[in-house]
């Protein structure tokens, strides 16, 4: 992409997690096409546990294991992107990037589009190489083990002419750093520029969270058109600084406050935001409103990338049981508390979490300190929720039977029992020297 | 007449924030609605104040990172998620609602800063000019 050097690179984001809206891409692609010039569309569809679910899906069906909504995400925009030379970069390969690539090739054919050059990035999946992980996975029933790999393979694939780059577990911001590296031809130790592109990626990676999604609080933080949010576009310059904007005519809001909220999202030490590509430093970052729905981020600095890559290991972790029942009207709270005491007495083998929804629930803690400290009140519409986990399925399931039995054995007037039981996944993480992670890419056959 | 007394408001009238999680660690940003409020936030939204607000969740450590350029601070609360997204039995196992626990922190605001506060003023009726 050396031709485009110096020109602004536009990167649009049309998904921030697996399960995000699938109609977000259309306006983003139209805005990228209308702007002309080099452009990339990213979809970020992996969270900490999504890969484990994808591995489980692949065990059931060797052709599965990639983003289940891949078709819904790409069908509306794939042909348009290919026609307008908008590259697509995504981690929607999840546990089966090759399978995703084959599906995209078929989809392009179905749509009558030109055959895309699809690159597959590999090496993040360490589930067959647990020996590299040290002690962390010992004794666990491992479902998935994936290293967070960086931007280089993406950049190389784009430089070699890929129209679509399908990845598994790359670090989210690397979806933007890769295209920026390929477009601007930066040195791979140009830490300041890499850090700036990383923070552009960080602003984009949660989709609408920077354009007014997950921000609205009526009367305090009003966001227009929340039901038709525009997803973000970053205009990245040759120094890596970015301006965040969104397609004209869409809903949502970009101002200094929405950008700052997302800038710090899931950041710990803002002076050392660690990714596989660089350690970004926000200490001198500046957020400037350039105009309506246009905000610029400058001042980000970078430090050398870490020697190790983070690996997330998901493992089978017993069973989670949840049961709920409602009490309403006079003395509802007292009846709900009594029902909770009955459950505790009947289930001594389970460490129960009890919530009184409508009194205290999400701010409370698993140990019940918040509930215990709260003076019994006059809640008139209270839902008792009980939850417990246990390695043994039958033991966990006892909770659901006891909540159900409250219909005829519990306090007066209980109703609306719902129960669920599901397998749990646990996560542990460790660091692995990057030399031990066999990162590679190739064009899909 | 006495000098005007301080106004008592919840933190959400002076700042906004968002929660993130990694494992059993929560991070909560606190972003001033106005640069004029920054010094007040730095003085009152302290590690100790936040640790006290979250004491029932037993944080093993509360760290505050200041970003004066952005008029923002970031709190990192270790071990407050009952094990994290896979292990907590909380309905909100990510702890995504926790910014709203922090945003209820009571603040004392000098009356001359009242114009920089945001949002409905009916939270503590009578206290505002």
Question: What can you tell me about this protein's structure?
Answer:
Chain A is of the alpha+beta class and about 450 residues long. Chain A folds into 2 domains: about 10-130 and about 145-305, no CATH class; about 315-430, TT1725-like (Alpha-Beta Plaits, 2-Layer Sandwich), CATH 3.30.70. Chain A has helices at about 25-35, 50-60, 70-75, 80-85, 95-110, 150-160, 175-185, 190-205, 255-265, 330-345, 370-375, 395-410; strands spanning about 10-15, 40-45, 85-90, 120, 140-145, 165, 235, 240-245, 275, 280, 285-290, 295-300, 300-305, 310-330, 355, 380-390, 415-435, 440-445. In chain A, the strands form 3 sheets. A 10-stranded mixed sheet of chain A has the order 11-12-8-7-1-2-3-6-4-18, sandwiched between helices. In chain A, helix 6 crosses helix 7 and helix 7 (about 175-185) packs across helix 8. The longest helix of chain A is centred in the C-terminal third of the chain and has 17 residues, at about 395-410. Chain A is globular and about 70 Å long. The model of chain A has no long low-confidence stretch (mean pLDDT about 95). Chain B has about 130 residues and is α+β, with helices and mostly antiparallel strands. Chain B has a domain at about 10-80 and about 95-105: Alpha-Beta Plaits (2-Layer Sandwich). In chain B, strands 2, 3, 4, 5 and 6 form a 5-stranded antiparallel sheet that branches. A two-stranded antiparallel ribbon of chain B has the order 1-7. The longest helix of chain B is centred in the N-terminal third of the chain and has 7 residues, at about 40-45. Chain B is elongated and about 50 Å long. Chain B starts with 6 loop residues before the first strand and ends in a 20-residue tail after the last strand. Chain A: This is Acyclic terpene utilisation N-terminal domain-containing protein. Chain A: InterPro entries: AtuA_N. Chain B: InterPro entries: AtuA-like_ferredoxin_dom. Chain B: This is AtuA-like ferredoxin-fold domain-containing protein.
